[in-house]
């Protein structure tokens, strides 16, 4: 049976959930009205059935993961994911440009620094009443525009790459073995 990479990913999630839902009872409560041996044997049988199902599901899961890994390599999915991660790093970095204002004009900076130089000395003033510096962004409007353009380009690239990833996940398939299909049917996961 063939399934797409997208379905294979969803199936892996479902298998993991099924394994996590298995309850392995290691202790039973006994009372005077029950036969201890039959209660214990029933618990052991249930434990063994669930242990066997766990083994079968995990075997199926990890064979599926190997098949998906090979299909991902063949389809170039890993390279696309790396490129998406790079685009996300650029988006996170260049997003700062949206929060910044352009650097003050050189004339304004020079004027403010000149006023700082002309201020009287600290004699007789409190520490907090005098400013010894000015602050300005280091990026001028052109630099911020370039950063915003880089941000826009990275966002477009990420969308393009995610479309490629979706296409690869839908077009490429993996083959489930008959045994895997049987296990998944028995566990009511297919």
Give a description of the structure:
With about 190 residues, the chain is mainly alpha-helical. The protein has one domain (about 1-120, about 130-185). Helices cover about 65% and strands about 5% of the residues. It is built from six helices and two strands. Strands 1-2 form a two-stranded antiparallel ribbon. Helix 1 (about 5-20) runs antiparallel to helix 2 (about 35-75), helix 2 crosses helix 6 (about 180-185) and helix 3 runs antiparallel to helix 5 (about 140-170). The mean pLDDT is about 90.
**How helical, in percent, are the residues?**
55-70%
- What's the oligomerization state? single chain
| Strand order in space, largest sheet | 1-2
Strand content: under 5%
Name a few traits of the molecule.
190 residues, mainly alpha, two-stranded antiparallel sheet
Summarize this, please?
The protein has 190 residues and is mainly alpha-helical. It has helices at residues 5-21, 36-75, 77-94, 106-118, 141-171, 178-186, and strands spanning 2-4, 173-175.
Topology:
Blueprint: E1 2-4, H1 5-21, H2 36-75, H3 77-94, H4 106-118, H5 141-171, E2 173-175, H6 178-186
Antiparallel strand pairs: 1-2
Helix pairs in contact: 1-2, 2-6, 3-5
């Amino acid at each position: 049976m063939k399934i797409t990479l997208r379905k294979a990913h969803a199936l892996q999630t479902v298998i993991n959930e099924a394994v996590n839902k298995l309850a392995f009872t290691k202790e039973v409560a006994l009372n005077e009205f029950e036969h201890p041996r039959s209660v214990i044997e029933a618990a052991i049988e249930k434990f063994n059935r669930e242990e066997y199902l766990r083994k079968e599901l995990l075997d199926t899961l990890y064979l599926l993961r190997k098949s998906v890994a090979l299909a991902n390599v063949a389809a170039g999915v890993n390279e696309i994911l790396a490129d998406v991660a790079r685009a996300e790093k650029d988006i996170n970095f260049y997003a700062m440009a949206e929060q910044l204002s352009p650097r003050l004009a050189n004339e304004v900076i020079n004027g403010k620094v000149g006023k700082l130089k002309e201020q009287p000395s600290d004699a007789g003033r409190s520490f907090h009443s005098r400013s010894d510096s000015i602050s300005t962004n280091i990026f001028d409007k052109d630099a911020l525009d370039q950063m915003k353009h880089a941000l826009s380009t990275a966002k477009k690239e990420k969308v393009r790459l995610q479309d490629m990833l979706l296409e690869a996940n839908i077009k490429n398939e993996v083959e489930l073995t008959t045994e895997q299909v049987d296990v998944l049917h028995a566990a009511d996961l297919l």
